[in-house]
Amino acid sequence: MELRYPGLLLVVGGVVLALLTLLALSAVRRRRPRRAGPADAAVANSGLLTALPEYRRALRHHRVRLLLFSLSAVLLGGGALVGAARPVAVDIERPSTRNRDIVLCLDVSGSMAPYDAELVRTFSRLATQFEGERIGLLIFNSSAVTVFPLTDDYEFIRDELHIALRSLSGDREFEYFFAGTFNGAGTSLIGDGLASCVSAFDRVDTSRARSVVFATDNHVAGEPIMDLEEATEMAVARRVRVYGLNPEEWGQDEQSITMRDLVCSTAGDYYVMSDPAAVDGIVAAVTAQEATTIESAPRRLVGDSPALAIAFAGLGLAGLITAGRRWRP
After folding, report:
1. 161: alpha, beta or left, given left = phi > 0 and alpha = psi -120 to 50?
2. pLDDT at 265
3. Which of 50, 191, 244, 245 is the S-S candidate for 263 at Cβ 3.0 to 4.6 Å?
4. Crossing angle between the packed helical segments 53-84 and 307-326, to the nearest 10 degrees
């Protein structure tokens, strides 16, 4: 425990010491022998009075009360003085964060809405369990839009994922959610979408584990700037793992095989929506990815700690009240 205003103790302590010194000098002067004056009078046979058991008992009680009064006054005054000096509790905290980044990359073409909604619902529940991980959300169709960048503000994340879930579930009140995803020619330009999601990570800080949850039906209609192979090469170069979710795999069709091979080349994995455990499997794979704990700079936390001073002052006040009552005849 420390005091916020320790100088106050020195000042008051000096004043008290000076008063005690004056009282001591005054007592010494009073003890010096002096001549008997006309006001002085001898009391005969006083020894008989002081020898009485009742007198001795009363004197003993008087001394106990006086001692209680003195100690209580010291406790009350000391507690009040320490409280005025503001006792504080000091603690050194070394906060740590988990260095894992996750970007939800959703193809929002019409056929994908139900699958996107399920994925968003799962991550909305998962956000309540994260501690230090950053999450971002990017949607794409013919063009890509960042709904929110990487952040660890989980209350904000839950609010945004709630809006995303309402819009993907067909709520017309939230149709604005798709604004900006139809600014190009074609639909489901998945190469451009994945490249935009890979670019959402920090380019400087490469110590954080990076994952993209990439949900698309893999039905490209149009000419993307980057094809899926080029986008996955970018992901490999930037150490981003891609976890692909394909809701419409028709057997071993060429598009599905290509998508599976490309996302697996990033050290990620490939899932089919017809698998009941697909979404949970993606979540388990992403959260199982190693996330090193980063120790932040130590912080000095200071908070008021008046309990001890209040306890001493309260004890002293109770003693004074008790001693005062006993002083009554």
Report:
1. alpha
2. 93
3. 244
4. 150
DSSP per-residue letters across 250-318:
-SS-HHHHHHHHHHHTTT-EEEETTSTTHHHHHHHHHHHS--PEEEPPPEEEEEE--HHHHHHHHHHHH
**Is residue 206 helix, strand or coil?**
coil
The dihedrals phi and psi of 214, each to the nearest 5 degrees, come to -110, 105
Is the Cβ–Cβ distance between 223 and 186 less than 8 Å? yes
Spatial contact of 237 and 222, defined as CB atoms under 8 Å apart: no
* Helix residue ranges per DSSP H, 32-108: 46-50, 53-84
**CB of 99 closer than 8 Å to CB of 201:** no
Domain boundaries, the chain: 1-25+56-90+302-329, 96-293
CATH of domain 96-293: 3.40.50.410
